[in-house]
Design a protein that fits this description.
Layout (H helix, E strand, L loop, with lengths): L3 E5 L8 E10 L7 E3 L1 H5 L3 H6 L3 E3 L7 E4 L4 E4 L5 H5 L5 E9 L4 E10 L12 E7 L7 E3 L13 E7 L4 E7 L5 E7 L10 E10 L6 E11 L7 E2 L3 E7 L7 E4 L2 E2 L9 E5 L4 H6 E3 L5 E4 L10 E10 L4 E11 L7 E7 L2 E3 L7 E8 L9 E5 L5 E7 L2 E6 L10 E10 L6 E11 L7 E2 L23 E2 L2
This protein binds 2-acetamido-2-deoxy-beta-D-glucopyranose and calcium ion (CA).
The site of 2-acetamido-2-deoxy-beta-D-glucopyranose has 3 residues, from strand 31.
Length: 469
C-alpha cells in the first residue's frame, strides 16, 4: 500500500487553524486499516490528544474515518468506495477536521481516495441480435452498444475489440461528449448459403492493472436474398413407358434444389414445351415434380417423347432440363389380312402351281410383335407362299380332280410372333368346275372313198371318227 503524506503547518494563523495535512489512500481498504499516524504527523503527543479531548469532525463523510486517541492514529471505519463517494469527480477526497481543546486547536485533514481498478467495463445487455440481408453492401454500418466503466483514468474504459473479423470490422468514432460511438462495418459480403449465422464477441477493455474487460455477444442472422437459381439434379432424365399404359401412371419424379431459404428456395415445376399435344399427354406436379401420364400413348404413333421442363423459384430464377421417355411396344395389333384377288372357280385340269388368290398381310406392331407367318389348313391340296414382303399367294399343289372334291374351303391364318400371339384368318371357298364346253371334232375334215357299181348292199365303205378335245 502506497501512502503519501503531505504536511503543512500554518503556525499562528489568525483563523486558529494550526495545521493542515493531506493523505492519499486507495479506495476499498479494509475496516480497521491504518490511514495515518496523525499525532506524529502533527507533532502532537498522546497526552495532548487526551487532555485536549481530540476528536474528528466532518460533514457527511465522518463515518468513513475514526480517530484512535490512545494510539494517535486515524483508521478506516467503513470501507470506502470511490465510485460511491465521488462518482466521476476527480480528485476524490474526504475532508476531516480534528479539534482539540485547552487550548483550542483545529487541524484540517484531507484524505484523497485514489481509484482502484475495481470495476470492469460492462454492457447494459449481454447480447445483441442483428438481422442483416446477405445483399447488404460493403461499408454498411451497424451501431453497437457502448460499455460503461465506473472507474476513472486508466482504470476507465480504454478500448474495444471485435472478433472474429471475417466479415465485420470495428469502427470507433469520437463523439462530442468525449465518448466513442461503437460501430461494426461490413467489409466482406455475407453469404447465407455459406454461413447463415455469425457470432461475434465485442470486448471492452480498461487500462487498469490488471486489465479488466466486459463482453457482449453479437449474433448476426443472415437473411436470404434470392441469389441462387434452382438446379435440376440431372440435365436429362430418362424413363421408359409401355404403350397403352393407363392414365395416372407415374412415369418419373424430377427434382431441383435451391440453396436459398424460405420462399426464395421454394420450387415450382412446369412443362415448358409449347406443343399442346404434350401437355395433353403428360402432366407434372407443380410441387413434387412427379410426371404423370394423362393421355394415351401409342407406340405406332410415337416411339420417344422429349419433354422440356423447368424449375422456377418464387424469386423468378429458373433452371431447365428435359425428360426422354422411350415408349416400348405392346402387341396390341392383330395381323390385318386383305384378299387382293381371288378365283371363285377353277378348272379341274388346271396344272399344279396355279395361283388362285393373292393376299396382303400387315401388322403395325414392331419386331416380334409385327413379324407375321401365314398358313392354311393342311388337309387340302393347296399351298401358301410369301411372294414379297407382306404379299402371299395361294396356289394349287397338284392337278385337281373334280371327282375327288368339287369344292374346297381354304382357311388362311396369319399369326404374329408376339407373346401372346395375335392372329387373323380368312376362309376362301373354291369351286372346281368340270371341263365340258367343247363339241366333238372329226379326226379329218373330209373323208373320200371310191366304190365299184353293182356292189353288194351292206358293204362297209369306211368308218368316220370324232374325238373329244
Ligand atoms: C364349305 O363351307 C360351306 C359353308 O360353311 C359349307 O356349306 C360346305 O359344306 C363346306 N365345304 C366343305 C368341302 O367342307
Ligand atoms: Ca475499471
Amino acid at each position: 500500500m502506497r501512502r503519501q503524506v503531505l504536511l503543512f503547518i500554518w503556525a499562528l494563523s489568525l483563523t486558529s487553524v494550526f495545521g493542515q495535512v493531506s493523505y492519499s489512500i486507495p479506495e476499498e481498504m479494509e475496516k480497521g486499516s491504518l490511514v495515518c499516524n496523525i499525532a506524529q504527523d502533527l507533532g502532537l503527543d498522546f497526552n495532548r490528544l487526551k487532555s485536549g479531548r481530540a476528536r474528528i469532525h466532518s460533514g457527511d463523510s465522518a463515518e468513513y474515518i475514526e480517530l484512535n486517541r490512545d494510539k494517535g492514529v486515524l483508521l478506516i471505519k467503513e470501507r470506502i468506495d470511490r465510485e460511491t463517494l465521488c462518482g466521476e469527480t476527480t480528485p476524490c477526497a474526504l475532508h476531516v477536521q480534528m479539534i482539540l481543546e485547552n487550548p483550542m486547536e483545529l487541524f484540517r485533514i484531507t484524505i484523497e481516495i485514489t481509484d482502484l481498478n475495481d470495476n470492469p467495463p460492462s454492457f447494459a445487455s449481454s447480447e445483441k441480435r442483428f438481422e442483416i440481408s446477405e445483399s447488404a453492401v460493403i461499408g454498411s454500418k451497424f451501431v453497437l452498444e457502448r460499455a460503461i466503466d465506473a472507474d476513472i483514468g486508466v482504470n476507465d474504459l480504454q478500448g474495444y475489440s471485435l472478433n472474429p473479423t471475417n466479415n465485420f470490422e470495428l469502427k470507433l468514432e469520437n463523439q462530442a461528449d468525449g465518448s466513442k460511438k461503437v460501430e461494426m462495418v461490413l467489409q466482406k459480403p455475407l453469404d447465407r448459403e455459406y454461413q447463415d449465422q455469425i457470432s461475434l464477441l465485442l470486448t471492452a477493455l480498461d487500462g487498469g492493472q490488471p486489465r479488466m474487460s466486459g463482453t457482449m455477444q453479437i449474433t448476426v442472422n443472415v437473411l436470404d436474398a434470392n441469389d441462387n437459381a434452382p438446379v435440376f439434379t440431372k440435365s436429362v432424365y430418362k424413363s421408359t413407358l409401355t404403350e397403352n399404359s393407363p392414365r395416372g401412371t407415374n412415369i418419373i419424379t424430377v427434382s431441383a434444389s435451391d440453396k436459398d431459404g424460405g420462399s426464395n428456395g421454394e420450387i415450382t415445376y412446369a412443362i415448358s414445351n409449347s406443343k399442346r399435344r404434350l401437355s395433353e399427354q403428360f402432366q407434372i406436379d407443380r410441387k413434387t415434380g412427379e410426371v404423370i401420364l394423362i393421355g394415351e400413348i401409342d407406340y405406332e404413333k410415337a416411339k420417344v417423347f422429349q419433354i422440356d421442363i423447368e424449375a422456377i423459384d418464387n424469386g423468378g430464377l429458373s433452371d431447365s432440363s428435359k425428360i426422354l421417355i422411350d415408349i416400348t411396344d405392346v402387341n396390341d395389333n392383330c395381323p390385318q389380312l386383305k384378299v387382293l384377288s381371288k378365283s371363285d372357280t377353277i378348272l379341274e385340269d388346271s396344272p399344279e402351281n396355279t395361283v388362285i388368290a393373292m393376299l396382303r398381310v400387315n401388322d403395325p406392331d414392331f419386331e416380334r410383335n409385327g413379324d407375321v407367318k401365314c398358313s392354311i389348313n393342311d388337309d387340302i391340296p393347296f399351298k401358301i407362299l410369301k411372294t414379297m414382303n407382306e404379299f402371299y399367294s395361294l396356289l394349287t399343289e397338284v392337278a385337281l380332280d373334280r371327282e375327288v372334291a368339287s369344292q374346297y374351303n381354304i382357311t388362311v391364318t396369319c399369326s404374329d410372333e408376339g407373346v401372346p400371339s395375335l392372329s387373323s384368318s380368312v376362309t376362301l371357298t373354291l369351286q372346281i368346275s368340270d371341263v365340258n364346253d367343247n363339241a366333238p371334232v372329226f379326226e379329218r375334215s373330209s373323208y373320200e372313198a371310191y366304190i365299184v357299181e353293182n356292189n353288194t348292199p351292206g358293204l362297209s365303205i369306211f368308218t368316220v371318227k370324232a374325238r373329244e378335245r
